[in-house]
Amino acid sequence: MKLSSALIAVSFSLAGFNASGAALAQSLPANPCESESSTYAQSACLDKALKAADGELNAVYKKALELIDKDDMMSAEQHRNWKQALQKAQRAWVAFRDADCGEPVGYEWSQGTGMGPATLACLLQKTRIRTAELRQRYLER
């Protein structure tokens, strides 16, 4: 089980480097479930963390959409187009995240028992990165 935890921790770290660069990945919290000793416990912990991260992402995304309307440099039509573009990008990102953390992760883990926690860790890391990206681009500008 320790090897499984170590591999998930490594894949958790590497997911951040591949997705958005070293600086952003290093600013994210570490795998919150690294100390869990069983695959079941890791999965339960990661599922809980993913639900929390999804909630945070949705809140930041909603604020980003609200901030677009407050931009006084654009017309109502430009606001509408910008929001539609962000919505389209977000839907594409969700599809990418789910696809990238789905079947490929299963094959990386040879469809073994570590696949579940590894998939959840991948989803969690990508969700945290996207939240940080949206926060940086919209809320901190």
UniProtKB/TrEMBL annotation:
The lineage of its organism: Bacteria, Pseudomonadati, Pseudomonadota, Alphaproteobacteria, Hyphomicrobiales. Keywords: Signal. InterPro entries: LprI-like_N. Pfam families: LprI. This is DUF1311 domain-containing protein. The keyword Transcription regulation does not apply. The keyword Signal applies. Residues 34-134 form the Lysozyme inhibitor LprI-like N-terminal domain. Residues 1-25 form the signal peptide.
